[in-house]
Design a protein that fits this description.
This protein has 501 residues and is α/β, with parallel strands linked by helices. It contains 13 helices and 23 strands. The chain folds into two domains: 283 residues, 3-Layer(bba) Sandwich (FAD/NAD(P)-binding domain), CATH 3.50.50.60; 153 residues, FAD/NAD(P)-binding domain, CATH 3.50.50. The strands form six sheets. Strands 1, 2, 3, 4, 5, 6, 17, 18 and 21 form a nine-stranded mixed beta sheet that branches. It has a five-stranded parallel beta sheet with strand order 7-16-8-9-12. It has a three-stranded antiparallel beta sheet with strand order 13-14-15, with no helix packed on it. The longest helix is centred in the middle third of the chain and has 25 residues. It is globular. The protein starts with a strand and ends in a 16-residue tail after the last strand. 42% of the residues are buried.
């Protein structure tokens, strides 16, 4: 494997990486590529997480690829179905053979002299290291650490007599039949786990510090399933995708312009399922909808579990963990045989790899983001990061298409390097967080390691699908920021001795 060269190296064989490979094959035929995957399977997040009920928190007509229709009846899909969809995409497009499993990228070093990235790879099975090189590096490794999830320090947790589990490392043999389970957290993972575990557990309690906005949607999309009966698959998928993306953007925009009306709507939906005082205490957040990601519950499953007496919610801060449960600040003790810490992720920039450009280490926190995809003064590298206000893959597809445009433009112009560089007029830009108007705790903990966002295009990280489609697909590449150049061999300026006469 040592010293192999590819036109493109894609890091990560999850939803984004497989999509990036498809678009590369489609729009840049003939380009050689390899996918480096640190684990032993395709699927990324959808292979890593194996907790009960694992599912999408977006509909699959928008979380699916733009080139491969989602044809299952369920629009809110379970983890195994999504993993199978990604695997099928890789297999039927000849992508699987390009994947190098157990290949963890440790570092990447760019050389302007040769227009290449030299990538150091560690074989995760045997610990051996080797190097590959490429002209373009497509980072599809996600935004969080696969090694460990985030667990706060809970006073007294060492005396707990039961099991403590983080959803990121779910034991395959866990038997929670007849057990009292406490799930700490109120995000998408917690709201998936609680109703799913009621099938076997004696009782499941969701312990949350503060409420989260929740919206219920049908698990099946009746319109999509009807369209598929009468129209070709791709046409039905396209119409459903248009319907759902339009609705997503309308709702999100409404939360920005008129949050009070969205709050009212969400609360009215909840009041139809649970008593008013329960909603007031446990499902009425202090923040506006979409300041943090809206949690989706299919077919009211969480509300149904609460109404059935199989699940409950406690909203309070935790005082400490006791031998047999969780003691709240109010003094209430929630009994538990198992504690699940659904307390979030650890953000990680570029999978934690060390990056250098011409021998100088890159601190990405000191760079500026170019359209949320590239980094100032870092050549031939793109990162895939999806939407926080819509389905991830909508943006992943657009970024993959944009990378192909860059590669084809280098071919057209006879150049080998593309680098975003600040214009003189950009030097005084105010610094903003890489993602704005988004305040979940896992983002607050790690946002400082990500690049800065400016106050003007293209030094922003846009999160609006309707305008992003035009920007990524047809926006000018001659924007005064992207610099297309050829390799510049380093001159040897040493004085050549004059031969004696």
């Amino acid at each position: 494997m040592s010293n192999e060269h590819f036109d493109v190296i894609i890091v990560g064989a999850g939803l984004s990486g497989i999509g990036a490979a498809y678009h590369l094959q489609d729009k840049c035929p003939g380009k050689t590529y390899a996918i480096l995957e640190s684990r032993d399977a395709i699927g990324g997040t959808w292979d890593l997480f194996r907790y009960p009920g694992i599912r999408s928190d977006s509909d699959m007509h928008t979380l699916g690829y733009n080139f491969k229709p989602w044809t299952n009846a369920k629009a809110i899909a379970d983890g195994p179905s999504i993993r199978a969809y990604v695997q099928e995409t890789a297999d039927e497009n000849g992508i699987t053979g390009h994947i190098r499993f157990h290949s963890k990228v440790k570092s990447a070093a760019w050389s302007t002299e040769t227009s290449t990235w030299t990538v150091e790879v560690e074989n995760a099975e045997i610990g051996e290291r080797s190097t590959l090189s490429c002209n373009f590096l497509s980072m599809c490794s996600g935004y969080y650490s696969y090694d460990e999830g985030f667990t706060p320090e809970f006073d007294g947790i060492e005396q707990f007599q039961g099991q403590v589990i983080h959803p990121q490392k779910w034991p395959e043999d866990l038997d929670y039949s007849g057990k009292k389970v406490v799930v700490i957290g109120s995000g998408a993972t917690a709201m998936t786990l609680v109703p799913a575990m009621t099938d076997k557990a004696d009782h499941v309690t969701m312990v949350q510090r503060s409420p989260t906005w929740v919206a219920s949607r049908p698990e099946e999309d009746a319109i999509a399933n009807t369209l598929r009966k009468f129209l070709p698959s791709k046409m039905a998928y396209g119409l459903t995708r248009w319907k759902n993306t339009t609705r997503q953007q309308m709702v999100y925009n409404k939360t920005r312009t008129d949050p009070e009306s969205v709050k009212k709507l969400l609360l009215e939906m909840a009041h139809k399922e649970l008593p008013e005082d329960y909603i007031a205490e446990h499902f009425t957040p202090r923040y506006n909808p979409w300041d943090q990601r809206l949690c989706l519950i299919p077919d009211n499953d969480l509300f149904n579990a609460i109404n059935a007496g199989k699940a409950s919610v406690v909203t309070d801060t935790i005082d400490k963990i006791t031998a047999n449960g969780v003691k709240m600040s109010s003094g209430e003790v929630v009994e538990a045989d198992i504690i699940v810490t659904a307390t979030g992720l650890n953000l990680l920039q570029l999978g934690g790899i060390e990056v250098a450009v011409d021998g100088s280490p890159v601190n990405f926190a000191e760079t500026w983001t170019y359209k949320g995809v590239m980094y100032s003064d870092v050549p031939n590298m793109a990162t895939t990061f999806g939407y926080i206000n819509a389905s991830w893959t909508l943006r992943a597809d657009l970024i993959a298409e944009f990378v192909c445009r860059l590669i084809n433009e280098m071919d057209r112009t006879g150049t080998s390097q593309v680098t975003p560089r600040l214009r003189d007029s950009d030097q005084d830009m105010p610094q903003r967080d890489w993602i704005g108007d988004f305040s979940p705790n896992y983002f607050k903990r790690g946002i400082q390691m990500f690049p800065k966002q400016g106050d003007r295009e293209p030094w922003i990280n846009p999160q609006l699908y309707s305008s992003d489609k035009k920007m990524f697909r047809t926006g000018s590449l001659d924007d005064g920021v992207l610099t297309f150049t050829k390799a510049e061999p380093v001159r040897d300026e040493r004085v050549t001795p004059i031969a004696a006469e």
